[in-house]
From TrEMBL:
Keywords: Membrane, Transmembrane, Transmembrane helix
Presence of the UniProt keyword Nuclease in the record: no
Superkingdom as given in the UniProt entry: Bacteria
Keyword Transmembrane helix: yes
Residues that span the membrane, as ranges: 70-87, 141-159
UniProt name for this protein: Membrane protein
Residues forming coiled coils: none
Length: 160
């Protein structure tokens, strides 16, 4: 069972695509901000989308194995579209809502805590915040998709 699982190339391509996309977020973030953030390896959101990389890597690998006319490829392709739509739509909007909710929490907490000294308060309070980087911009989804496709093509054209 374990050996056959390790010989499942579409699964391995999908898993490697996630790991690669998560890892590459760190140097991309460094190039943009000049800050190293190893926490990006385990976080959601950011460039490229590891969700998109994974599902397109899986779908491309299935295309190599079963052909574009197979029912399993159709299932994988539809799965990919749904995941990428969700990553760039619903989850992105949830992140935008989290930004507003965090601000409301800060404002309410400040009001309750310092009601007596309200005129004297600054904006230095730091509270635990909801995660605002939940989803992806369309460009992040696009480059995540290209990452998965690229990894699958390299695997099937040059490694197998």
């Amino acid at each position: 069972m374990t050996m056959s699982l390790l010989q499942n190339t579409p699964l391995l391509v999908a898993l490697f695509s996630v790991i690669f996309a998560q890892f590459v977020k760190i140097p991309i973030h460094f190039l943009m901000t000049r800050q190293v953030n190893f926490g990006l390896f385990t976080s959601t959101g950011g460039m490229p989308s590891s969700h998109s990389a994974s599902v397109t890597g899986l779908t491309t690998a299935i295309a190599y194995e079963t052909g574009l006319d197979s029912p399993i490829f159709a299932v994988a392709a539809m799965f990919s579209f749904i995941v990428m739509y969700d990553a760039s739509g619903v989850r992105f909007q949830a992140g935008q809502h989290a930004v507003i909710l965090n601000q409301l929490r800060k404002d309410f907490q400040t009001l309750i805590k310092d009601l007596k000294d309200w005129p004297k308060l600054g904006d230095e309070e730091k509270l635990e915040e909801l995660k605002t980087l939940l989803g992806h911009k369309r460009s992040e989804v696009f480059f995540g998709a290209l990452t998965g496709i690229f990894i699958a093509v390299i695997t099937y054209e040059f490694l197998l």
